[in-house]
Amino acid sequence: MGVPWLKKYQPTKASDVPQPEAVEQLRTFVVDFKKQKKKAAFLYGPSGTGKTCIVYALANELGLEVLEVNASDVRTKDEIETKLGTASKQMSLFARGKIILVDEVDGLSGTSDRGGPTALAGLIAETAFPVVLTANDPWEQKLSPLRSKSMLIEFAGLNHTAIFAILQNICVKEGIAYDEMTLKTLARRAGGDLRSAITDVQALTTNQQLTKESLDVLGDRDREQSMFDALVKVFKSTDPSIAVTAFDNVNEDIDEIFLWVDENLPKEYTNPQDLARAYDSLAKADVYRGRIRRRQHWHFLAYISNLLSAGIAVAKDQKYASFVTYGPTGRILKIWQANMKYQKRKAIAEKIAAKTHTSAKQLIKDLPYIQVLFKQKHPSAQAIADDCDLDVEEVEWLAR
User: Fold this and answer.
1) What one-character DSSP code corresponds to residue 9?
2) SS3 per-residue string spanning 104-131
3) Treating both helix axes as pointing N-terminal to C-terminal, what angle do 379-387 and 392-399 enclose, rounded to 10 degrees?
4) What are the tens digits of pLDDT across the range 159-214?
5) How many helices (H) and strands (E) does the chain have?
6) What pTM does this model have?
7) What CATH homologous superfamily does 5-154 map to?
8) CATH, domain range 160-215
9) Dist. CA 392–CA 374, nearest whole Å
């Protein structure tokens, strides 16, 4: 499966992140931290714009350690104190400075009984080291305690020219033969999301080339979330609040989502225990789907959605780092082929049944005996074909 290119080509220098203004603001905040009135930098903007990787690139340049936690892992006051309390006040083992990164703070609970944002705001007030928060939308009401304690730094969606330059560099290093116009089109389709663009290039170039035909596989994004992105959201996350929205913007019906998940689940979940728990969630979703069909209880759709997304996301003990190329199921094609075969058989049976004054259901059972005549090219076969008005394709089907 190979190393994910997102990891392989992660920036090692801050200047490699194509967000010059934001990079400079964050650099100033970290370097002059002791002079800052606010002790946290709040990086916000669309997915794939460099919010997380800039922290590691800058830390690498300045010789700092990064202590990263995902907001979904520090939802309560006790969890924040356990994972960040001491680390925010004491130097690391080798007396290195550090940056405390709290990723995806959108995942924090805003309820008063859990108190995650408020507890984190209290930790920021007392920290001895720079705290960096990241989120797509910093204006949610629950994040108000964090905004007031933080310097807001915007990461804008990247323009397609910057994305194209990065993709071009990756293709050159990987020895990928590419059509320039196709690569530019891919950069535009990313809609400012560099992460999804890099993932798309890796997924489409397994044969060491990128062509217009391979690009057509993606279809038009129009910023409507693709099934690939939705599966990433489920399979690469352990946070139910993030995973539960995965299929909200996917233009597929629930039956097709089942097939996509079923097809790609064993590719991602290589741990047998994780896979068993995930399939248990999928099976429960299928039970509710059956109840909808039988009883028309459509409110069960909410349970199906939660089980297909959050249920499968939390089934794993930890995220899998390997890159997996997700693909559509071949089952739909097999079902279609089986249906076509059945319809052909049914049409032939109905024609013969009408001439022999019997039921089509009975003729379907007797059809193998009639096929013997056609396979052996018995003289009566042609008479049957003429009398029952069978066309060429139907005769060929009976003779196979």
Assistant:
1) T
2) CHHHCCCCCCCCHHHHHHHHHHHCCCCE
3) 140
4) 888 999 999 999 999 999 988 888 988 888 887 889 888 988 888 887 788 877 77
5) 20, 7
6) 0.56
7) P-loop containing nucleotide triphosphate hydrolases (3.40.50.300)
8) 1.10.8.60
9) 12
